[in-house]
Design a protein that fits this description.
Layout: E1 26-32, E2 37-39, E3 56-61, E4 66-70, E5 72-73, E6 78-83, E7 86-91, E8 99-103, E9 109-115, E10 121-124, E11 143-146, E12 152-163, E13 172-179, E14 191-196, E15 199-201, E16 209-210, H1 213-218, E17 226-232
Parallel strand pairs: 1-12, 2-12
Antiparallel strand pairs: 1-17, 2-16, 3-4, 3-9, 5-6, 6-7, 7-8, 8-14, 9-13, 10-13, 10-15, 11-14, 12-13
Length: 233
């Protein structure tokens, strides 16, 4: 995992801001501790699409409706979730392979929220070129491979995950929100977005628990922790 500097302590609000104009093409990465969670350990650093079954994906449309799909195994190393006119799929090791979001719903998509933990999956992000949380090796921040044109995306990681009683390192998270609506431009129907995002698996199924607030405070992670980094294409 590589990680830019994480600021610990109480933070009143998410500090990432956009100053571009509609039609810009950029990705902003935000990392927010938020509600801290804990697990016993990870299975190892290689996770593929077939190993994320149970993950929840909520798609929020531009008409203020939403739909949730549950990730299912579709092959030996592949998996996907889908709904009415949309799908997200991935095949192979998530550190090396790509994901694809497709929208044929007839509506714009404002955001997509990935809740990995209910499928025993965590989002593994960068950590300054170093190995981060034990057992996770190097990770990858959300990165677009194709389909970004005309979009300004904010990818926000939240619910930082710790191993055991240790404080979270700040590289693995339960939730990823991909937001297309930061400048009022949704991800339009008829579009596909290909992206990369590394994931890890919990060592034991269902072993992800919220850290009580007093304990989180003693670990120095009470409140929000924020990183904001923007990449312009």
């Amino acid at each position: 995992m590589r990680r830019e500097m994480i600021a610990f302590g109480a933070v009143a609000a998410l500090a990432a801001t956009h100053t571009g104009v509609a039609g810009a093409t950029s990705v902003t990465i935000n990392k927010v501790n938020g509600t801290v969670m804990s697990t016993t350990g990870l299975t190892g650093f290689a996770t593929n699409g077939a190993q994320m079954a149970g993950m929840s994906i909520q798609v929020n449309f531009s008409n203020s409706t939403s739909e949730t799909g549950i990730w299912a195994t579709t092959g030996a190393v592949s998996g996907a979730a889908s709904g009415t006119g949309w799908s997200v799929a991935e095949s192979g090791d998530t550190f090396l392979s790509t994901w694809t979001l497709r929208n044929t719903s007839g509506l714009g998509i404002d955001s997509v929220v990935f809740n990995g933990g209910i499928g025993d999956t965590l989002f593994d992000t960068t950590f300054g070129g170093l190995f981060g949380t034990a057992g996770s090796a190097r990770g990858l921040d959300f990165a677009v491979v194709s389909g970004l044109t005309g979009l300004d995306i904010a990818a926000t990681y939240s619910e930082a995950v710790a191993i055991g009683a240790a404080a979270p390192v700040g590289d693995i998270f339960n939730t990823l929100t991909v937001d297309f609506s930061t400048l009022g431009v949704a991800f339009g129907t008829g579009r596909s977005l290909v992206f990369r995002q590394d994931t890890d698996n919990l060592k034991f199924a269902g072993d992800l628990n919220v850290v009580p607030l007093p304990t989180a405070a003693m670990l120095g992670v009470f409140g929000l922790s924020v990183i904001a980094r923007r990449r312009r294409f």
